[in-house]
Structure formats: structure tokens, C-alpha cells
Predict the 3D structure of the following.
Amino acid sequence: MSKLMVVFDFDRTIIDGDSDRWLITHMGLTHLFDQLVSAMPWNSLMNRMMEELHFQGKTIEDVGECLKQMPLHPKIISALKFAHSMGCDLRIVSDANQFFIKTILEQHHVAGLFTDIITNPSYVDDEGRLRIVPYHDIKLAPHGCSLCPSNMCK
């Protein structure tokens, strides 16, 4: 018998909100975000927000501490643990980013339940700044799906 795979989105599914907007609000970037949101693709905008935080002297640890405050409903935690204990292969496909997702899941001790997280890559550069890049290069030809953003087809 094959193993059952359960695939989740992250924002507004595993967490009851949006991790990007949580960070923007709690790190005081709402004004800048509102100025730029209509002029930039989402991943470029979030990368710009990380640039602003770095410019303000905020560290990757500051970003992580903010994300660790994002609540995860206890019933979601229970459901994830139960599904995993029943042998389900749990995965995430999300338009969030690797650092945000892993930080929040690790804070709630459920990161190890997932066998794969497909999302926008992120990394800390040599200056200590978090960089967020799209899963698919948005400069390449679109994947042809009208339901998804150009950087990631779910």
C-alpha cells in the first residue's frame, strides 16, 4: 500500500495569517510596503523589505525573533502530529519563503514532520542580509497558468 501524501499551503493554511504581512507590520515597514506594493512583484518587494531592515540595522536574528512570535493554532499542531504519526508524508507548497516557513515551524517544533518544503528560496548574504528570490525566475517565459503568480505554479 502506498503512503498518503498531504500537501499544505503555508500562509492562511498552516498559519492563520500571512507571514510576510506579519513581519511587515511587526517590524514597522507598513508605510514603505504600502508605497511599493503596486509597483513591484511580491518577491522583489519582500526582498526590498529585507534590504530596508538591513539598512535600519536589523539582523537576521531580529527577523527570526519577529517570526517566532507568529502563533500556530494548537489544533493545527495536533493535526500535523496526528497525520505524521499515521504515516502521512507531509509537504508544503507555498509562495512564502524558506526562512520564514522554517523559522515558524521550528519555533512550534513541527519542522521535522515535513519531508519537503517547496517555496521561494532565501539565504543570508555575506553582509548578513536576508535575500528572498523567486522559485521560478519571473524574467523567463510564464508557465501559462492563470491561477498562480508567475514565480510559482502550485
Notes: The beta strands are 5-8, 89-97, 114-120, 122-124, 130-132. The chain has six helices and five strands.
